[in-house]
Amino acid sequence: MSDKVINLKVITPERVLFEDEAKSFIVKTKGEVGEFAVLADHMPMTASIGIGYLVINLPNGEEKRTTLFGGYCVVSNNNAVIIAEAGERPEDIDFERAEEAKRRAEERLRGEAGIDRNRAEQALYRSIARLELYKNK
Amino acid sequence: MADSMRDIKRRIKSVTSTKQITHAMQLVASAKLRNARMKADARRAYTNYVIETMHMIAGALEREEPNAFLKANGCKKDLYIVVTSDKGLAGGFNSGLLKFTAETMKQSEECAVMVSGAKGLDYFRRRNYEILGSYIGESDEANLGVANKIGKAATTLFLDGKVGNVYIMYNRFVSVISQKPTMIKLLPLSREEMENKVDEIDTETASGEYKPESGVIDNTAVKNMIFEPSASYLANSLIPAYVDNAIYGALLESAAGELASRRMAMENATDNADEIIADLSLAYNRARQGAITQEITEIVSGANAIG
């Protein structure tokens, strides 16, 4: 495999989550576009991002993860910017709160009338992403 | 003599109480500025990347998808969203921006405004501009809800063909001592115009159109860009979000700028008051000394006359 790298930036409204070279990254989100991975020399691309998480493979073999909640990703000539509406590092995740949110969302989805199904589903996906990321910390 | 002494004393008192007010306002502005600046700084990278990436992919989107957001709709009326402050006493903060706006408006055949901030509203109302919306009461604390409201109103006007171009005019926060009147063209989203105009203007030193510079996206790459899930989906979901984000960014910058400008103005006012008080105290002491000397002369000459 070549040793080419991608300059990746992950940006949220609050801060820059990640800014460094990466060997590849995988966007694992539920949304209009499914999961996709980007390696060096990828075609220029703009892709919408759903709710889920991001796995970054660093050149030294390490792996970094962040959650991603909506936004888009622009790739061009080994430069990539992920502009996320929200995102966090594993150390920012409150495990109990995420579990609680998941339980609540599931409860709401089981109940029938008068709920915003879309919103509950989004909350569920968000909490699942947080939990998965937390477990793989 | 006694009269002028009383006058001077009265003036010292009045200047001292003015100074207390300006000093208090300076402290309030400093405290609020810290908060506003933190918010503006945190968001700046995000806003800049949103603006930059959107302009970069605009060219590629345009080829793929004849989207309404991307092409001129033929309307001759331009919409200017002007972000000013609600309150004055902030130095040249509003006047500088309004002058820049009036100057820029000369290139439009017809124009209408949407104003945030009471100062700007007063200005445009007095000059009988067509005002399509006004947002008062939040100028020193940017509010995402307001930004979304302005964004939605402007986008709707544009899509309905009621306005041809949408610009946002605001004071960019360069540093605590410098805020620059700045323009960003929001709609229609087009890549070429952004590039052409920016060359002429040095963004750091002059008022003008703003282009964030991070250089992360390569122009040549835009040619073969692919879109997931589709160009039309991205255009329709990302462009309204881009408009809202750019407006929110401008509100944040303007809030920080307003407070910095007010702090500066109030600091100067306090310094000036100190100077005036020093001058007046000197004049007061001189007058007092004069009065005493005169009294002694009178007593001495009276005693001499008797003796």
Give an overview in words.
The complex is a heterodimer of chains A (137) and B (307). Chain A has 137 residues and is of the alpha+beta class. Chain A folds into two domains: 79 residues, F0F1 ATP synthase delta/epsilon subunit, N-terminal (ATP Synthase, domain 1), CATH 2.60.15.10; 43 residues, Single alpha-helices involved in coiled-coils or other helix-helix interfaces, CATH 1.20.5. Helix content of chain A is 26%, strand content 42%. The longest helix of chain A is centred in the C-terminal third of the chain and has 19 residues. The model of chain A has no long low-confidence stretch (mean pLDDT 86). With 307 residues, chain B is of the alpha/beta class. Chain B is built from six helices and seven strands; from the N terminus they run αβαβαβαββαββα. In chain B, strands 3-2-1-4-5-6 form a six-stranded mixed sheet, with helices on both faces. In chain B, β5, α5 and β6 form a beta-alpha-beta unit. In chain B, α1 packs antiparallel against α6. Chain B is elongated, with a radius of gyration of 28 Å. About 4% of the residues of chain B have low confidence. Chains A and B meet through β1, β5, β6 and β7 of A and α1, β7 and α6 of B.
What is the topology?
The complex is a heterodimer of chains A (137) and B (307).
Chain A lengths: L5 E6 L4 E7 L1 E7 L5 E4 L5 E13 L5 E14 L2 E6 L10 H16 L6 H19 L2
Helix pairs in contact in A: 1-2
Chain B lengths: L1 H63 L12 E7 L9 H13 L4 E7 L1 H9 L3 E6 L8 H16 L5 E11 L2 E10 L3 H10 L7 E2 L16 E3 L2 H76 L1
Parallel strand pairs in B: 1-2, 1-4, 2-3, 5-6
Antiparallel strand pairs in B: 4-5
Helix pairs in contact in B: 1-6, 4-6
Index terms:
heterodimer; A: 137 residues; alpha+beta; ATP Synthase, domain 1; Single alpha-helices involved in coiled-coils or other helix-helix interfaces; 7-stranded mixed sheet; 2 helices; elongated; B: 307 residues; alpha/beta; Helix Hairpins; Pyruvate Kinase, Chain: A, domain 1; 2 domains; 6-stranded mixed sheet; 6 helices
